[in-house]
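User: Fold this, then the next.

Assistant: Folding the first:
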Amino acid sequence: MLLKSKKEEMIKGFEETIKGSESVVFVNFHGMKVSEETMLRRELRNSGVGYKIGRKTLIARALKGKAEGELPELSGEVAMAFSKDQTASAREVYNFQKAHKSPLVILGGIFQGKFIGGAGMMEIATIPSREVLLSKIAYLLKSPMQRLALAVNEVAKQK
């Protein structure tokens, strides 16, 4: 049984975490083995994503008034993944879930100051990283120029 002072300290910790993050993802980790949990923490840390486990009631208290909309239902054993990057936390949890066939379930999260359900966070999780998007734009810009250069080269060969 936690003392009231310890609970208040945990709530303040969650509030500071939420305040300092661009996005927060709520994850149900029920059924994960300790080794998988350790691997998840390590991969998230390497990607610049934090991970905290807490009681649902304490997390819900910490979230009151922190975002617009209605808090998604937090069922099962709940943890928070958070980062300063808007899409990194959701993307890294999703990638871990997909790569390791993990029983992780994204319950929802906070994105751009609004509570979003699990389906919305899954959409955000599938957005590629900034570097990947920039490389795709560079390829799209390069492609027409490359085709034009090939066409001019073929015309020059015929003459």
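Now the next one, as you asked:
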Amino acid sequence: MNSIELMKKEIEYQIGKLKFSGIEKNKKPSEFLFVGSGDSFVSGLIASYESNFNCLCIDPAEIIINPTLSKNKTVCFISISGKTMANILAAKRVKKYCKESIAITANPTSDLAKNCMKVIHLDYQKPSLPTAGTLSFMLTTMTALALVKKSNRVINTKKVYEKAEELSNDIIYKIKKYFSFSIDQSIFFLGSSTLFPISCYGSLKINEVLGLKSAAFSIEYFCHSPLFSLRDKDILLIFSSKNQYINKKATRLNFLLNKQKFYSFLIEIPFNTNMEILFFSSLFVQLLVYGLAKEKKLKNCYFLENKGLLEISSDLIY
């Protein structure tokens, strides 16, 4: 099995398997501060959005520079491996300021876990070979949400998965004639509210799986400046939802871009609740990137193929 097929296997594993963690909620959302990088940062950012910004998510460097940000907070360090050096250093720095530190990790014996007061052990087994984060991302996201959200309702993941797969296949069919591995092509993800961190997640997956330039912006922010960086070959994926304001803005932007002959596509989410929107958009991103990788007949994620860049990444992270 190659890393692309393993990615699909982990995406499919989420059907019927994901649920809120059985975590006792004895704290207010405002007491939490999430810390992470990459996918882990996005998980914490989603929790921040879903708590109506009662809790925050920051990069570990901010804690290292200014550990007093953790004063009287329960600081949750999100890291599947528990080996990220910035998280470990940040965990050491907050000890004399925070109320509590928690490692959210799949590695309970890691240095991160050892430097935190508590550990939330994620039920995730390290795969036989590295691949893009999909199942691991959803597990960290669900755990972060379980700490700050009141509802424990489990949604019908099978139905959401089927709808996400249907839409991703439709979008792949529409964009594949414009899609290339040209160095002058970028893929933009645009989304508002919780769909902004999902857009960030989409951008990360395009980078690591396909090796293409990608960026994420809120719709409003994009229109103020990044819009002017668009090139003819670029592809834009604009998330919309049934929120009237978001839908109107996304639909109008998509219409105007198409009118100017840009390759813009509206991603309309056919669900209403926050959790359904979150599941659907995450699965859509995962299935879209997997589908584009298969379209280009890739066997491995780009980050595994480019050994030089992987060495730089590993040197700075671990």
